[in-house]
Amino acid sequence: MPDIISNHLRTLIFAAVTALMPVSLAAELSIARGSASTASSSQGSAPEWVYALRPGDSIASVVQTLLSENASRQRLLEHNGLASNTELSVGDTLRIPVNWLKRQPEPARVISVTGHVQHISGIDGRKLPLAKDSVVRVGDEILSGAGSATVGLADGSELRISPNSRLMFNRLTQYGKSGMVDTRLRLQRGEVHTRVQPIIEGGARFEIETPSAVAAVRGTVFTLRASATGSRVQVTEGVVDFGKPGMTRRIPAGYGASVSTVDSGSLEIRQLPPAPTITPLPPVLNRLPAELTWQANGFPTYRLDIFDQRSGTWVQSREVTDTHFDIAQLDNGSYEIHLAALDRQGIAGMPEIAELEVDLQARSPDLTAPADGESVNDDMPEFLWQLNGTNEVARVEISEDESFRRLVTTSEWAPENRALPSRPLSPGQYYWRVVTEAGGSSVATSSPRKLIVNGTLPPVRIISVNYLDNQVRVFWESVEQAVDYRLQLSEEPGFRNIIKEADISDTTAALRLIPGRRYFVRVKALSEGPLASRWGPGRELYLD
Description:
Layout: H1 2-20, E1 31-32, E2 48-52, H2 59-66, H3 73-79, E3 93-97, E4 104-105, E5 108-114, E6 117-120, E7 127-129, E8 135-136, E9 141-144, E10 148-152, E11 158-161, E12 165-174, E13 181-195, E14 205-209, E15 214-217, E16 221-227, E17 230-237, E18 239-244, E19 247-252, E20 255-260, E21 267-271, E22 290-293, E23 302-308, E24 314-320, E25 324-327, E26 333-341, E27 352-358, E28 366-369, E29 374-376, E30 383-386, E31 392-399, E32 407-410, E33 418-419, E34 428-438, E35 442-445, E36 449-453, E37 456-457, E38 462-468, E39 471-476, E40 484-490, E41 498-504, E42 508-512, E43 518-526, E44 532-533, E45 539-542
Parallel strand pairs: 13-14, 29-36, 37-44
Antiparallel strand pairs: 1-19, 2-3, 4-12, 5-8, 5-10, 6-7, 6-9, 9-12, 10-11, 11-13, 12-13, 13-16, 14-15, 15-18, 16-17, 17-20, 18-19, 20-21, 22-25, 23-24, 23-26, 26-27, 28-30, 30-33, 31-32, 31-34, 34-35, 34-36, 38-39, 39-42, 40-41, 40-43, 43-45
Pfam family, one: FecR
InterPro entries: FecR, FN3_sf, Ig-like_fold, LysM_dom_sf
Protein name: FecR domain-containing protein
């Protein structure tokens, strides 16, 4: 509680100073040379880490587990002014120079990925799709196009990489089991949202460099953006030392800063817009879309981000020029909504954070057609139903058995109330049902119906016609599963007046025609089973 009060008091003092002296704001802010974590080195001594002994610890175990090979037990005792026979107990402290600690590269791990994001290897430059649980090592890069990613570091810090960003991992060092890290990243372009674990004083380091600035932190929540025109930082918790390398200024929570590459490159600091007030949402949303509203706070544009609480996935990001937004297309789960006003430079202000739980329930649909037990002559019958829920998608499932253990085919998932099967159905008896899904996890199923498919044979195409004297021979293509063919002859192309009809077992027939008259002929295939058939296109015949 004292730390919270102290931080709040410092922020109030800072705000008061900036209000009284807006022109000379830069003179009122402390200037740090480089990273804030190297302050102890300015005292003329190497950075040290103070370690408090835990149960089971001894000087020997500290040397074995924490120190590198060049740091011996004797050196540690001498550094702390202790005799060789000194016995230490739980809670006693040892001063350890940071450069004595074991150092090892500790890779980062991908927590979540949305959309297309590339992982560029620092070893051979290969580009591979970034995937959940991918390991990111020193020298690697993450290149996001339309996608985004969340990356976890060894100390529990978290990076949310926005679309159209390029982030390089220049150093990922952990000091043995001390918990201290040395993390140095380069944001070449784009935006990264960062939640950094508190930095252990005296050697630990966390820096993100851009082409025009550097951000060094002790443990904070901030957003850093880099572009061809400069760099911008937004601090929502803690403090960030930000500015051109070697000339950074401490930016507290509630303030933003920018370094421009267009002008002289001077550092501009401003107070962030206050957080807007979001109208409370119901604790659980059972229906989407739902309207999110908030009170205007004097700014025309707002930045709205939605994150999945469990995975950290960046679900949506929008700029809104109104005070309402329709929340839609969310799966069931728990989410965080971050809403912030954008100032005239486009820097997002202090965010208002609202939690949201979506729990959509699918409902069983009502089947419309075909009727139960109906016979159809089409091998691609259309299925119709009526949805009873909201925000649902549905598909048809067709099976050989009523328990649906032998699934034959399905339709595609879609928010429609009608569908065709994904492939033609052979003649026979089937069972069909409609499955609905809501929120990605809630599923409901209709009762099954029986369906008889008579099926169809393909239309028969006439290949050629040969004329010889008063006789015409017609040839047509063979159709699989056909046992006979039915031929019709008519004097008009609509075949409303049939002058001859015959069933033929071959794929050719000879016709005797009267010269000078026009005739039309067509053929269809016949089968022994329930297969129906369709007439092929008609062909004109004429004898001189």
